Amino acid sequence: QVDVAAMARLFGYVDVTDTGFIVAVLSIAFNPLFWNVVARWEHKTRMFSQVFGSPHAACYCLGAVILVLNCVRSHCFTEAMKSQPKLEGWDCHWTYYSGLAISAVGTLFVISSFLALGFTGTFLGDYFGILMEEKVTSFPFNILDNPMYWGSTAIYLGWSLMHASPAGLLLTAVVAISYTIAMLYEGPFTEEIYQQKQKGVKNK
Predict the structure, then answer these.
(1) Where does residue 158 rank: exposed (0-12), middle (13-18), buried (19+ CB within 10 A)?
(2) 3-class SS at 14?
(3) What is the rounded CA–CA span in Å between residue 169 and residue 80?
(4) How many CB atoms are located within 10 Å of the residue 132 CB?
(5) Are 160 and 169 in contact (CB under 8 A)?
(6) Mean pLDDT in the chain?
(7) Are 152 and 175 in contact (CB under 8 A)?
(8) What is the DSSP string of 73-131?
(9) 198 phi and psi, to 5 degrees?
(10) Is 37 exposed, middle or buried (0-12, 13-18, 19+ CB in 10 A)?
């Protein structure tokens, strides 16, 4: 059972009306919305492939923009934590090193996901018509689905613990919710893309 009193005490440290906190929430929510809208528009119109001359060039451009947006998100996340109070009981070596370990695991998932998928596989290449030959089942995909998203969430969780930040924990929850919503939209759509590919192969 959730200890409501403990949760209320924890989030009593968070000023959700703080400008930095609001900016961080908006940046977290904006990123998956942005890349899903852009990628779906590309899949429907092929407009960006035409503008950049090839699907690969367009995908690399989108990937670069996503990376920049992720850096902005991380900066906003960190600044929001700095502007809000720490939880005194967590401001200790044990919490710091626990957060460091969680961030390390998250980083492992993110990097290994990127190496397994490649750049275009990571940055929505299938929406640009750059399809993989077969589903990736190697590490870390043999451990959990969407390891890139969950790894990124773990990094933010660890970062929050390292700073003993209730605001960071709440923002991490926003990250998890944003990614969960993104997965609900991306998963079925990606499956449909590959089903269309299989139908095309069978019809040849």
Answers:
(1) buried
(2) coil
(3) 11
(4) 14
(5) yes
(6) 90
(7) yes
(8) HHHHHHHHHHTS---GGG-SHHHHHHHHHHHHHHHHHHHHHHHHHHHHHHTTGGGGT--
(9) -65, -40
(10) exposed
The mean-pLDDT minimum among 65-69, 137-141, 178-182 falls in 137-141
Query: Which residue's structure tokens are 């759509």?
Result: 189
What the block records as the tokens of 40 is: 């779906």
Encode burial over 160-184: b for 16+ CB neighbours within 10 A, e otherwise: bbbbbbbbbbbbbebbbebbeebbe
CB atoms within 10 A of CB 126: 19
Cis omega (within 30 of 0) for bond into 55: no
pLDDT digits (tens, 9 = 90+) for 17-45: 999 999 999 999 999 999 999 999 999 99
The rounded Cα 54 to chain-centroid distance in angstroms is 26
Query: DSSP alpha helices (H): ranges in the chain?
Result: 4-11, 19-45, 47-52, 55-82, 93-122, 147-162, 166-203
The pLDDT of residue 147 is 95
Q: What is the C-alpha separation between 24 and 187, in angstroms, rounded?
A: 26
- Calpha distance 112→39 (Å, rounded): 23
Contact status, residue 44 vs residue 127, Cβ threshold 8 Å = no
Residue 106 has pLDDT above 60, yes or no: yes
pLDDT at 152 over 90: yes
Mean pLDDT of 82-89: 89
Please report where in the chains the tokens 């492939």 appear, as a residue: 49
* Tokens coding 157: 């969780």
What amino acid occupies position 72? Answer: V
